[in-house]
Amino acid sequence: MQVAPPMQIALVGIGKIAVDQHVPAIAGSPDWTLAATVSRKGSVPGSPSFTTMEDMLAARPDISVVSLALPPVPRFAYAKAALDAGRHVMLEKPPGATLAEIHALHALAAQKGLTLYATWHSRMAHAVAPAKAWLAAKTITRAHITWREDVRKWHPGQDWVFEPGGMGVFDPGINALSILTEILPMPVHLTAATLTFPENRQTPIAAALAFSNNVTADFDWRQTGPQTWDIEVETPDGLLALRMGGNVLEIDGTPVQGENSIMGEYPALYARMADLVRSRTGEVDLAPMVHVADAMTLGRREVTEAFHF
Ligand code: NAP
Q1: Domains in the chain, please, with CATH?
Q2: Ligand 1 atom 37 nearest Cα
Q3: Which atom of ligand 1 is nearest to the CA of 42?
Q4: Considering the entire predicted model, what is its pTM?
Q5: Using CB atoms within 10 A as the burial measure, which of 5, 21, 153, 162 is most buried?
């Protein structure tokens, strides 16, 4: 069988997630060569580095794909510049700071015949596809998400998560919502929310959400010690539980599928991006972000003690 040659990719925003996940996933993939990085301060040994997007796009017409691992607020300008320059674009989650930004990028990519992939890494967790298959023909009587983690561990010193557009606890919570919207056999919509803001911050540190169809969610960024990333779905045929961020599937309390590791998610995203580019298609599903926007629209605000890293 003929193997397709690797494609040249540039990685933009060399910070925590780029180093933890994107660089190893690209290095381990037969589909990609890390041909350049763009970052004001960061770089990756062995790859030519640029400090501005404009310089990289001008100097490297051979790079056909750009992966953006920046925080959501600055991401739009970088994505637009890449699409304007005729490059395919892969977006970290959440895909942008606002829904309208992503609609604009989606339209631009379609107009230019380029791939735009709004990634949701948690959808690539080991047990998400089996959970979706198990739920496909079932009646859902109740579902609950518990997503509690330690912001200091996952976003050390990253003040942008508490600035407007940083989304606060929805930065991890949207991962849970990306799984929920993938596995449920019916759409749900938000009906109420309580958002808890530290008195010195612009985004919530905790959120309690209620949706139609008896679906609820509890997000909290103040959990130390073991982290909790669980989704439980009740059906007349049994209780499905996804644990470890979608990586382990239990039915009625018995583990049946998956692997307690997040390390398969980014390799799967880059394999998907390779398929999308080669087939000249794209993938933009904004359902998880619609729920976050609705929570911000409908949410009741509570204030709690100041948060400092
Ligand atoms: P980060 O380390 O704070 O930021 C990534 C890099 O983006 C920074 O190192 C910085 O590089 C660049 N950057 C930051 N602000 C910028 C600005 N205003 N303009 C231009 N460049 C800027 O954040 P991260 O944790 O990697 O998160 C980035 C994205 O990945 C977020 O959307 C997040 O939701 C997602 N993500 C994070 C995690 C995690 O565990 N942290 C997990 C999954 C997904 P330079 O200063 O060198 O330019």
Answers
A1: 7-118 (3.40.50.720), 125-261+293-304 (3.30.360.10)
A2: 17
A3: 47
A4: 0.97
A5: 162
